[in-house]
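Researcher: We're teaching a course module on how sequence relates to structure. For the next exercise, students receive a sequence and then see the predicted structure as tokens, so they can try to spot secondary structure elements on their own. Here is the exercise chain.
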Amino acid sequence: MKAIGKFCLAGLIITFLTSTTTYAQVSLSVGISVHSAPPPLPVYTQPPCPADGYIWTPGYWAYGPNGYYWVPGVWVRPPQVGFLWTPAYWGFEGGVYGFHPGYWGPHIGFYGGINYGYGYSGSGYVGGRWSGGRFQYNSAVNNVNTTIVHNTYINNNVINNTRVTNRSSFNGAGGVNARPNQQELLAMHEHHQQATAMQTSHQQMMSRDRNQLAVVNHGRPVAVQHAGNNGAGHADRSSAQQAHRLVAVQQNVHHDSRPAFQSRPHGNGGFGGHGEMQRRGYSEGRAGGHRRG
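Model: And here is the predicted structure for the students to work with:
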């Protein structure tokens, strides 16, 4: 009789775990929990891609001893061919805001439905694709200079010029209400790699920059520049140097409250014949997008 009882208990436990796996996986990687919401995502212009082989990783609010601080988006070489970046996001659940770190993997996972812009419209990634071992860039939503970056294509179908004012930086009540789809759930079970050494170094530098603190910049972080900005000189620097120098950080942060979809002259900042308004607003089966990255 005791054996039967143990068997039934084990069966109940297995059933419970199976039934809660679907969404519980989204919360397993929470590293930090705080009681205040992160600021809205700032509006800024994506710096140009430094060379073939780099992938855009959008900016996000991180948290440290002095509160939230902004980590600007960067162009990064993936750890291996075929990998894509799933951005970090904040999720509100149980009265706290939990941070879900980003990761590299063969497919894009769930990133809270947050519209980071420049290819990351809240689900999936439409800024580029792998083909024959080489990364190709959708120049309709990325800042690429085709005299430097040659593997490009144009997919205007992902552009949505509908004005959207939701700049929420977290998932949950009061923010973005989204749940992972089947593809994102499958992606969570794939082999992943954490942020590269360059990404980690970049975040650490921003954590030491007082100007990036939300309590200082009031949610409007200043532009950041580094030596070797935008990957200049990438061909003749060692991997150790790249960790500190091959960082293409955000520039021209907008310190006003104007809508994201502002018309700009074609060709601005190496954008070629496609306007900044198009790059900032797009979606793939979702309500329009912003220019955040």
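Model: If you want an answer key for the exercise: The two ends are 61 Å apart (CA to CA). The chain has two domains: 1-30, 31-280.
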